[in-house]
Task: inverse folding
């Protein structure tokens, strides 16, 4: 993503704007996690490696914050996450 929101928030319906903002936040945080973990894997400097992984962990907490808010805003999302979880559990038993 790297600073470009993949949707046009200004074209989003008013009743959906908060959900889309939260989803964009999740995308941005996941993008940051990937970036920091990839850079950590490349560096030979142990201090940089440690800091990058620490920052990536913080971004994972941010994903959780956005996801928690999204589940509060979007009941369908909450139901579908539970359905997906059950489906995975059935397939990997």
Result:
């Amino acid at each position: 993503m790297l600073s470009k929101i993949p949707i046009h928030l200004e074209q989003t319906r008013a009743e959906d704007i908060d959900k889309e903002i939260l989803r964009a936040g999740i995308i941005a945080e996941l993008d940051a996690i990937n970036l920091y973990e990839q850079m950590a894997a490349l560096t030979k400097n142990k201090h940089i490696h440690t800091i990058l992984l620490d920052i990536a962990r913080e971004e994972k907490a941010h994903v959780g914050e956005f996801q928690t808010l999204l589940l509060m805003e979007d009941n369908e999302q909450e139901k579908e996450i539970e359905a997906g979880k059950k489906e995975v559990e059935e397939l990997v038993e």
